[in-house]
Amino acid sequence: MNTVSRLADMGIELPQAAAPVASYLPVVVEGNIAYISGQLPFVEGKLVTGKLGVDLGVERGQQAARACALMILAQLEAAGLLDRVGRVVKLGAFIASSPDFTDQPKVANGASDLMAEVFGDKGRHARAAVGVPVLPLNAAVEVDAVIALTD
């Protein structure tokens, strides 16, 4: 079963892959590694904005991180690579948050859990979860990825 069919069976529909907002490529492949640029959280077509610990709680942050992970999958699909995922190697999660907010790892679990849900053990990965003062377009979360591809 291909990944899109598996997602459909799980009740997950991928969003349309977002166009870059600046001078970069959404996906770059070097050898058997795909590097996916940071993706922003769109839920029901609307960007999730604000800061964790000020405007948003952990649960909404997790939803935003999951939306970023869905956009990563959408970028892979748009590049014709979704069915070549051999392993999710690493995710980088950037969480716009107040200086006293310390639950960045819990927020990033929204993206991590989706990858494990979709790919099983191949979706378990290394990760960084970093609090930042602001993200592009006032996004609450941004997630990038390194993916090993099969031939």
The biggest beta sheet is recorded as:
5 strands, mixed
User: Topology as H/E string?
Assistant: HEEEEHEHEE
The averaged pLDDT comes out at 96
Summed up, the helix count is: 3
Radius of gyration: 14 Å
What would you call the shape?
globular
Unreliable stretches (pLDDT < 50, length at least 5) are none
> Helical residue percent?
25-40%
Tell me how many strands there are.
Answer: 7
What is the CATH third-level topology name? Answer: 60s Ribosomal Protein L30, Chain: A
Enumerate the strands of the largest sheet in spatial order, edge to edge or round the barrel: 1-2-7-5-6
* CATH H-level superfamily: RutC-like
Distance between the termini: 17 Å
User: In total, how many domains does the architecture comprise?
Assistant: 1
Query: Which CATH C-level class is it?
Result: Alpha Beta
InterPro entries: Endoribo_LPSP/chorism_mut-like, RutC-like_sf
Protein name: RidA family protein
Pfam family, one: YjgF_endoribonc
Domain Endoribonuclease L-PSP/chorismate mutase-like: 5-142
Describe the structure.
This protein has 151 residues and is an alpha+beta fold. It has a single domain (3-149), classed as RutC-like (60s Ribosomal Protein L30, Chain: A), CATH 3.30.1330. Helix content is 29%, strand content 28%. The protein is built from 3 helices and 7 strands. The protein has helices at residues 3-9, 58-78, 104-119, and strands at 27-30, 33-39, 42-43, 46-47, 85-96, 126-132, 141-149. A 5-stranded mixed beta sheet has the order 1-2-7-5-6. Strands 3-4 form a two-stranded antiparallel ribbon. Helix 3 (104-119) links the parallel strand 5 and strand 6. Helix 2 (58-78) packs across helix 3. It is globular. The two termini are 17 Å apart.
